[in-house]
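Ex. 9. Protein: Regulatory protein YycH-like domain-containing protein.
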Amino acid sequence: MQWGQIKSLFIICFLILNVFLAKQLIDRGEETLSFIPEASKEEELELNISGLDRLDNEIYEVPLLYTSGYDFNAVDNLASQLPNQEAVVIDHTTLFSRLTTPIDIPIDSEDMLTTALAEYVYLGARFERYRFLEEAGLMVFFQRINHPIFYNQQALLFVKLNDENQMTHYMMRAVDIVEEEHDDKPQTLLTQYDAIYRLYHNSNILKTGDEVTEVSLGYHNLVSLPNGEQLLNPTWRVNVNDTSDYFINAIEGHDYPQYQSFITETLDQFVSLLSSPNGKDVTYYNLNEDRDNESTLLTAIRQPFITAYHQLTEVESE
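Predicted structure tokens for Regulatory protein YycH-like domain-containing protein:
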């Protein structure tokens, strides 16, 4: 055999050997990489979402609540419990009031604000501040039954302020617990961590870089019953980046929709009752007949809330 052929044969053999060795090296590299553990979902959450150190690790047990609308007209001598104000109740469940003298409201002190509400607003001690919409001079309060009832048109208080931060008007609805033999056994709730986990992994609502700034417990309307009652479910409110609120069913773990237009839609609904009272059950309290007739009082209460509505809708449209 010629030397050239032998040399070519050796070259081919070395090439085959090199390919074999290269494949072995690649396979070993892939095998080594396969042993690098993937980050768990918990680790992924903790790497991408800040503020988890603020969470409460306590296990809560809270009952469901059965409620019905508060009937203002069923209150004995309601007029005497509305001092220095003229009021109207529409369809038994919605109270509108005008203060005869504006009342200073300490908007920067929760304790003083709570005291002022209890003194000047009927059932005011049952409510807590949710938001102050300064551009419209409007304070929004949610009713509490041990915990706040989130975004419920039947458990809400609007307080209208003038330019000096004095209360001039308010309108409200409230609910009471139904005293019946419902199954009110306390339910074991998801932990706050579980609520955040579900917002991030299940709902994809939380995004990388978000910060959990507060988590608090409240109630959300799970279902409205045919007799006008509501079944309220324990709910986690999760505030993110100090700007947005998200709500998680604290028993089943699903999220509730956001309420971008809740305040303006509810304002519009309340004002529409004042605008078209015909055909409705309307009862007046402490009406100063020397100064106002019924129609004038309705207009006087309605107008500042209409103004607030327009101011808010202009902000929403920007």
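Check your answer against this statement. Residues 3-34 form the longest helix (32 residues).
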